[in-house]
Amino acid sequence: MSSQETYDVVIIGAGPGGYVCAIRCAQLGMKTAVVEKRATLGGTCLNVGCIPSKALLSTSEKYEEANHSFKGFGIDIKGLSVNLKAMMKHKTDVVSANTAGIEYLFKKNKIDWLKGAGVISAKGEVTVAEKKYKAKHIVIATGSDVVSLPGITIDEKQIVSSTGALELPAVPKKLVVIGGGVIGLELGCVWSRLGADVTVIEFLDEILPGMDGEIRKESRKIFEKQGVKFKTSTKVTSAKAGKSGVELTLEAATGDAKAEKLSADIVLVAVGRKPYTDALGLDEVGVKTDERGRIKTDAHFKTNIDGIYAIGDVIAGPMLAHKAEEEGVVLAEILAGQSGHLDYNLVPGVVYTWPEVANIGQTEEQLKQAGIAYKKGKFPFSANGRARAMGATEGFVKILADARTDQVLGAHIIGPEAGTLIAEIAAVMEFRGSAEDIARTCHAHPTLEEVVKEAALAVDGRPLHI
Questions:
Q1: What are 24-82's pLDDT values in tens digits?
Q2: Is 79 left (phi over 0), alpha (psi -120 to 50) or beta?
Q3: DSSP-assigned beta bridge partners for residue 400
Q4: Strand runs (DSSP E) across 102-233, as ranges?
Q5: What gap in Å lies between CA 217 and CA 228, rounded to an integer?
Q6: CA distance 112 to 72
Q7: Residue 313's CB: how many other CB atoms inside 10 A?
């Protein structure tokens, strides 16, 4: 391969946004290459994020169920124990299968993998491992990285990020999670199920910032019942690792109370992520970023520099793998001369705890703030036959619809398979459908999906089973 190989598209980053964009570009006939410095494809999501965390969530759920629920189903088990080494092997095997799958898709679609760190060395030029490649279009899809707090150093041994929390060599006796968002709750629940005493510290007055108020309160109540402790309206001012563990200093978020001490074996810092734009050469070529370090783009993902685009966690919007994937597809189609669009109001969010939490569209708080008149339909899983049969009756489905037109404006679910159930509502919202559309759709019985139908019926005050 010559040092001046030319491509239609060079994508920097092989995470969900980058690799999906590459596949779609290749499908549309563009000569495509992806720059990736990891030894495996798939980015944070497949290697140290979504996929390994879901593997541990799944195995820990099974252990929790066997330990606490099987007896009620008439299944007696003796000598139940955690084999953490085998759990970690399952996680590793799942990650390996997924990353190998992406490599296969690259070969299938004739996408070149340029191995190494990529730098935009000039307009229309990317340098990888001292080789220069020409590109008509350059796409930045480098994702995000963990952030810490002032006075806290992540060593990935005692004070860990989400990456370190996926590799703990033993179940900690005491785990403190700093941050009551999605990542903190998911990983906190994993280790809580396996036997850790878990405390979640959140600066705001409630967990799951930005989600519907009812969902936030209900989820906290359920997690507390599972044994997770919470300290909200609290900030961590320091965390010092030592031979006997980690010593934390806490204060009230308002700063008007005396400091409190807390000790832990392991501290997980899960206070958010930041765009990964280091050493890409952005300043040198003049690509503009905003006050949060995100790359500025227009509605078609184009930066201020012709021929340079950005998608995924490096631009504004929720830092979600599926959001990045959709952006990658839309951008590929735009580059091929087609039209493309992504409605950010219709990007679902899911928390893969048990029960799961899922949301799409507007919350009640947002609708009230915007002065939009709405109707609410709510239905509990406890009134659903399938949920009772599964022994999974906690939670509810809530649907919000425009008071005048009945168009679905938002939906919020806490309960079994919430992440799957939200897809039906997403499809209806994509077509600007109404609560009546869901209510009039025949749902199979007995299924969890009937809770969605009943919530839609409840919007009009006519649920059938409550």
A1: 999 999 999 999 999 999 999 999 999 999 999 999 999 999 999 999 999 999 999 99
A2: left
A3: 376, 410
A4: 112-115, 118-122, 125-128, 131-140, 144-146, 159-160, 174-178, 197-201, 229-231
A5: 14
A6: 54
A7: 30
Place of tokens 């399938």: 386
d(CA 214, CA 97): 38
The structure tokens listed for 425 are: 């509502």
Phi-psi region of 464 (alpha: psi -120 to 50; beta: other; left: phi over 0): alpha
What's the CA gap between 64 and 164, in Å, rounded? Answer: 22
Using the CB atoms, write b or e for 202-233: b if 16+ within 10 Å.
bbeebbbeebbebbbebbbebbeeeebebbee
Element (H, E) at 131: strand 131-140
Cβ neighbours for 170, distance < 8 A, ≥ 6 positions apart: 84
Alpha-carbon span 95 to 101, nearest angstrom: 10
Residue 258, pLDDT score: 80
Q: What is the pTM of this model?
A: 0.96
Contact 92, 128 (CB under 8 A): no
285 forms beta bridges with none
DSSP string, 217-268: HHHHHHHHHTT-EEE-SEEEEEEEEETTEEEEEEEETTS-S--EEEEESEEE
User: In the numeric block, which tokens belong to residue 137?
Assistant: 């279009």
Q: Calculate the alpha carbon distances from 373 to 430, 439, 455 in Å.
A: 21, 20, 18
Tell me which residues are annotated as active site: 445
Q: Give the Cα separation of 32 and 6 in Å (integer).
A: 9
In the chain, the domains with their CATH numbers are 6-145+274-342 (3.50.50.60), 159-271 (3.50.50.60), 346-459 (3.30.390.30)
Tokens of 162: 């989400």
Q: How many residues does the chain have?
A: 466
pLDDT tens figures, 373-415:
999 999 999 999 999 999 999 999 999 999 999 999 999 999 9
List the structure tokens of 88.
Answer: 């970690």
Q: In what order do the strands lie in the sheet with 349-351?
A: 349-351, 356-361, 408-415, 396-402, 374-380
Closest alpha carbon to 301 in 360, 344, 247: 344
Q: What is the DSSP letter of 72?
A: G
Residues 6+ apart with CB under 8 A from 116: 35, 37, 128, 129
